[in-house]
Amino acid sequence: MTHLRTKRVEVSLLCPFCQSANETTLHCLVTCQVISLAWNRVGIGTQVAEDTSFLDWCSAAFSGADSEKRGLIAVVCWAIWGARNGVVWNNKAVRINDIVSAATVYLNQWRNAQNSLIESSENGFIPGDGLEHWVPPIHNSVKINVDAALFESNHSFGFGMVLRDSRGVLVHGRTVLKQGDVNPALAEAMGVREALSWIKSLSLHQCVLETDSLVVVQAIRSSIDMISLFGLVIKDCKELLATLRNVSIYFVKRSANSVAHAFARASSSYPDCVFSLGDVPTELLPSLVAEVQV
């Protein structure tokens, strides 16, 4: 806000987080009494000398940090700025846990991508990955497609799961609605975990699970353990997969996952429902018919 004032933009100088001090860059990202709680949570101090600039603070913080902590400094600043914009533009409440979670999940995902054998979105695929159109599973097997949807206005998110046989006929469709605000990657991971739990409860064998979240599939295939909420969900997925027989998970393009996407969007209207072919909501039938025809 202080920078905007220097450009003669008439705005309030007060920090949108604490409303008790002028918003300079250093105050917004480091010394604000609200934001300092996030830095304390990750073990990085915010004590600064008088007349210190944000660049001075960064230089001092980086000089005494290893590469892991330097990455954490960068992503916490990024998450704080995102939270700040959420307050200013969407009047969203500030939650320190959300700031720390967003930062650590993003950093872990980035490190996982760097260390993964998948060097780009097209490399490292295994046979069965990257399908652009939905295809039925082989004879005597079933396929489950899963997707997640966020409903920010209602502070909720949902999953859609579609179980079909080798003829492409719907066996079951399922919707699940959860309360809370999560990032897209975490929602997708939780959806995959929910689908694996469903497979286990149905005692399914010879099953293919498809999702259009590449980051989730990469994380499940990776041997890297991520210390974050996203990492804990991925760990659950790995443990569930280890208990299932002949269950495989693949990444597919959004165009091959359109029915699961439609079910996920419908979870806000039909929370926690299981459908058979005879009682599927009429608004979901067109996506089923179109995908089978493809």
Distinctive features:
alpha/beta; 294 residues; six-stranded mixed sheet; 6 strands; Nucleotidyltransferase, domain 5; 2 domains
Question: What does this molecule look like?
Answer:
It holds the Pfam family RVT_3. GO terms for molecular function: nucleic acid binding; RNA-DNA hybrid ribonuclease activity. InterPro entries: RNase_H-like_dom_plant (IPR044730), RNase_H-like_EbsB-rel (IPR052929), RNaseH-like_sf (IPR012337), RNaseH_domain (IPR002156), RNaseH_sf (IPR036397). The protein is of the alpha/beta class and 294 residues long. It has two domains: 1-117, no CATH class; 142-291, Nucleotidyltransferase, domain 5 (2-Layer Sandwich). The protein has helices at 2-6, 25-31, 36-41, 54-63, 67-90, 96-115, 184-201, 214-221, 229-243, 258-266, 285-293; strands at 142-151, 156-164, 170-179, 207-211, 247-251, 273-275. Strands 5-4-1-2-3-6 form a six-stranded mixed β-sheet. Helix 5 (67-90) packs across helix 6 and helix 7 (184-201) packs parallel to helix 9 (229-243). The protein starts with a helix and ends with a helix. Residues 117-122 have low confidence and may be disordered.
